[in-house]
Design a protein that fits this description.
Layout: E1 8-11, H1 18-30, E2 40-43, H2 63-72, E3 83-86
Length: about 90
């Protein structure tokens, strides 16, 4: 991600596959320590949903496990927590 002060990201693209949605989440997760604020991600519309089950995992591997970690910082890494909503 180029903008580490990203505040809001909205994914609503009918052409996005589950892999593409997971890719965006994975990139945010990989750069989580670099963001200076609390980000908000809304995934909606007709694009595919993130993969996996929304749950804690160490390490998180699926889209929903990474979302869980971003929202809850369950590994106590100290990054700014995100607000992430997904609906289809």
């Amino acid at each position: 991600m180029a903008a580490h002060n990203l505040a809001y990201l909205y994914l609503d693209n009918t052409a996005m596959s589950q892999a593409a949605v997971d890719g965006v989440i994975a990139r945010i997760y990989a750069d989580r320590a670099l963001f200076t604020g609390n980000g908000t991600l809304l995934i909606g519309g007709n694009n595919a949903s993130p993969s996996g089950v929304y749950q804690a995992a160490n390490p998180p591997t699926t889209g929903k496990e990474k979302i869980y970690s971003l929202v809850n910082d369950n590994l106590v890494e100290g990054f700014k927590k995100w607000t992430i909503t997904y609906s289809f």
